[in-house]
Amino acid sequence: MRVTITAAISAVALAATPAAAQEAKPVEEQIGAGGRPVGANWSRSPVIAQHGMAATAHPLATQIALDILKDGGNAVDAAIAANAALGLMEPTGNGIGGDLYAIIYDPKTDRLHGINGSGRSPKGQTLDQLLERLDGAEALPPVGHLPVTIPGTVDAWFAMHKRFGKMPMDGILAPTVRYGREGHPIAPVIAMYLDRSLQAYTRRQETYDFSFDNARATWFADGTAPEAGEIFKNPDLANTLEKIGQGGRDAFYTGDLAGVMVDYLQRQGSAFTLEDFADHSSEWVEPACVGYRDGFELCELPPNGQGFAALQMVNILKNVDLRQWERGSAEVIHYITEAKRLAHADVARFYADTDFFPVPMDLLREEYGRKRFALIDPAKATPEFGPGEPKLEGPGDTTYLTVADKDGMMVSLIQSNYRGMGGGLVPDGLGFMFQDRGELFSLDADHPNAYAPGKRPFHTIIPAFVKKDGKPYMTLGLMGGGMQPQGHVQVLINIADYGMNVQEAGDTARINHDGGRQPTEALTGPSADPLGTLNVEPGIPASTVEALRDMGHNVRVVDNGIMFGGYQAIARDPDTGVYTGATEMRKDGQASGY
């Protein structure tokens, strides 16, 4: 029997006040937020510091980032260190078996740099061969070897480090190596997600044939998930990171680690080869920015991710002044929801690996946004939106973190294994799980996002950056699948239209529209769920919920916060250089500075 500090405290609390007594009361009779001398009573103060700032989904990862900054590293060094730590401490959200995207503001050149660190499918497997392996299934499975794509995170680390890093990589990874061997206490929300993951993989083993033994030995050795407060160790991952720190990028993609990964995958039936791993590389890409109002600009990375969907939403919503209504009104939520649905109709039709299908830059033009806005009925939800007709000319469960340093460098980084912890496969003795990102390929040969050899699937993870009056203003990220672009826009609206600070902008109740046509569906035929479901948090007024239902929205109130993302942000005062950081109440995270 495991006894933890959290469990002991909970036992005392239960003896004094049974939790069931609180839960049994109607929401309106339960105790609410306390008072605050300044700001909204449902939020807390943002963190303000002068020399450096980090905001991550785990307090220990935040501290590691600050330690790197204090030891002479810059924001890129600290972001890599924090990301490595989160792969150990928050394996439910990310790890080196997954992919990475980042936006880096370089004060020396006054430029934004974007990196796409997503991996590709096996070069030796065609769509026809994949369909044969699927044996009649209409989509790729969420587990096993078929949805695995090359893990891109490690290569992205070294690409970022080569261009901007200052500290040696072995020193950057050393704190996580130490925690992996000595252990760290499991955080409460992560403990909940670990338990959910174990239950999900157990259920999937009833449907899918995949190997879960290595994953079980790594995280669930006694048959249960680690509890909050329990000391957890992962010496296999520590050894892997130590080899990467000493041997560099090639240790992972061409050396002994690559051999272990490929041998393991091929035993599962995978088509991956050593050549696939050796040939992998990240891509430096140009972020695109779209102006909103009052000097605010939102910046995102191009496909294969879904960042442009947020920019499309901005171009649609700038055609109506939301400030004429209260933030929690049905009108504001209706316009945000319809803008999201319009943007995602285009996502499902046009977003894919740009090496195979060029992104229609017409999607980001103000005129196109006006045309899409004109399709919104202000009084009711439109049953179904189709994609627009842009001109086809032109040149993605998750963790988000952000770090800023004393020189003004700011890093907005997001990293993920996709669904849950990944596809359930852990290579022998390496301590991390492969992503299942390939599940997001379409099996329609005519779709831009169709599976093809050596191709990157559509991606959900997206980092963001905000400019104000042309100057760098804020890093921003909000993890969680399709929640991400609509979350970015909601935070921007909270700040630009309603004057919230960076902490309030994340703490306030959010919406998550789910449904509509998907990038995995066939181009032709009806959508499985054209209207979708508008999920709202309990902080949305009951009168607004009823008004939205009267407008034709399928509204569901969800009170556990899980589907509404995990937010982190850092804002920089352009005059003083002082940083203001915020983190997510729906996660275990911490923003801190010095």
TrEMBL record:
The keyword Phosphoprotein does not apply. Pathway: Sulfur metabolism; glutathione metabolism. It comes from the Bacteria. InterPro entries: GGT-like_enzyme, GGT_lsub, GGT_peptidase, GGT_ssub_C, Ntn_hydrolases_N. Cleaved by autocatalysis into a large and a small subunit. Keywords: Acyltransferase, Glutathione biosynthesis, Hydrolase, Signal, Transferase, Zymogen. It holds the Pfam family G_glu_transpept. One of its GO terms (molecular function) is leukotriene C4 gamma-glutamyl transferase activity. Its EC number is 2.3.2.2, 3.4.19.13. Residues 1-21 form the signal peptide. It catalyses: glutathione + H2O = L-cysteinylglycine + L-glutamate; an N-terminal (5-L-glutamyl)-[peptide] + an alpha-amino acid = 5-L-glutamyl amino acid + an N-terminal L-alpha-aminoacyl-[peptide]; an S-substituted glutathione + H2O = an S-substituted L-cysteinylglycine + L-glutamate. L-glutamate binds at residue 481. The active site is at residue 398. One of its GO terms (biological process) is glutathione biosynthetic process. This enzyme consists of two polypeptide chains, which are synthesized in precursor form from a single polypeptide. Belongs to the gamma-glutamyltransferase family. This is Glutathione hydrolase proenzyme.
